[in-house]
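Entry:
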Amino acid sequence: MPGLYYLCNQLLSYMISINMMKYSKIFSVAFLATAFGVAQAQNDTAAIALENVVVTGTRTATDVRHLPMTVNVINREKLTENFRPNMLPTLTEQVPSLFTTARGMMGYGVSGGAAGGINFRGISGGAGQLLVLIDGHPQYQGVYGHPISDSYQTMMAERVEVLRGPASVLYGSNAMGGVINIVTRGMKQDGMRTNINLGAGSWGTVQAEISNQVRSGNFSSTVAAQYGRSDNHRPRMGFEQYGGYLKLGYDFNEHWNAFLDGNLTRFNATNPGTVDTPIYEGDQWITRGAVALGVENHYNRTSGRISVYDNFGFHKINDGYGEGKQPQTRYFRSKDALAGVSLYQSFNLFEGNRLTVGFDYQHIYGRAYYTSRETGEVLETQNKQSAHSHRNEIAGYVDFRQDILSWLTVDAGLRVDNHSVTGTELIPQGGVVIRPIETGEIKAMVSKGFRNPTMREMYLYPPSNEELKPERLMNYELSWKQKLADYGMTYGINLFYLKGDNMIMTMPIDGKPRNVNTGEVENYGLEVEASYALDAHWSLNANHSWLHMKNAVLGAPEHKSYLGLGWHQGKWNVNAGLMSIQNLYTQVGANEEKESFFLLNATVGYQLMKNVDLWAKGENLLAQRYEINAGFPMPRATFMGGVNISF
């Protein structure tokens, strides 16, 4: 990938050219000192129950009961029980305060009329304020800097960890609203597993997925491929996607291992416009991918990783034309990427302690331009040169956690982040965990998040402004969680308050639109969640979130509730879920509009034989009429059926 080839020279020259050099030395020395120091003490995570282990809030496997932040873990069983090729609908159901916009049965698309906006506590992923990670590597890119939801396929995920609230100390820019970390699949035991899933249903929808996992001695591999298509429920709204995932691993010994993983997706989508203002030829051809290579070490008192990664994208878009208008004579194109180096090491200094030091370097680059539909030549436009840009970001961070007493843990972290355009940003966080009883914990957290402006906001289109500064947000959170093992129940409650300034908005300046740091955000709310295993056959899970926003945000419901029911008996599996959305903003400003609706979904599975399962599912079984994107009515009841083969 071009970014990895470019990284070494850029990294060295940039580190020398700024004052951050002194920080990089400190963190590099700390890494080397700990990476090769073999301690003889007991591994402090060995006895942690697997359901309590997370990596997102701390970079290394840690008992979530000792972390001041709230992390939801959605395992592969939950991700796959409804046979969804994309993981975002499941996350929307399972995580309080998280909501994803949609416009059809399959596919989110990009550009005009797109859905797939991830919103968390009123902070928008569409604005790049929420960060998606794959194994801890950021997934945004150079020009637009926001996640593309069609990229997040279930086939790659072992589990997903969702950290609520800012995580910028560990992950830097864009992690101001929260983090979705996709932890990829791996093969732990010797042998081979293959899974094939095929399905078809309403509106010409077809989905297919195949995966194979192998483990032989020190070598492991996971290979997966998928295909999906749908006509969807409106004319000129077709969607087609195919992609693949590869992960290779090798264990040199019990302490060191290496990995290589990559994913690639290609999708073709069409924007039909709103019902009142249809669009013709609103076509999009998108290719997105990511590759990462790394080496990890695991000792009794220290563990860490060094990795290089490259995210890349190629986008070709026809903006289409309206009734009575002329077809476009040009395509919008962009080539953008983000390449980086990530290095961190975590170690025990003494009993009950965990210190993590890390270093990040990113080279952010891209180009936006137009080409002629007739000849394919690059057209001279006002955006051609200004949108061809390179930027660099370098950072060091420290996170310190200490069990002071058996019932008390404190945590403090600091990141020093330098951007080649916007300068240096200091990002602190601090928290405390109190465990008054063995099965419950109180958490209090204060954290800062930030987001650097994108190339689009600074250089592209007439509102661009090269003097933009980073957005900033402070989050305050108090939570309680308890596990009642004797009753098979876990429940939790969160209170949060967040306030941000320097938000980038487009405002009229001297009669012309201009991006300026003038926006503010002030939100507070409540989140409640619970799970309950009634017996060996029945299970329940539920969550509710209430959000108050000083300034309304698109795609952010005031109330979101979910109740899920699972039943297993012999060869039968049934999963049903009811989600309530109240006061969802579909338009803001002078023409403010809200939607409220209930969605009932259900999936039934039957084991036909040892390795073959049949499944059928229905979504929106109440046949609700509703919109999430204004002017894009969602389909009424839809149905799918298929077969799942494992061997």
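The CA atoms of residues 155 and 410 lie 37 Å apart.
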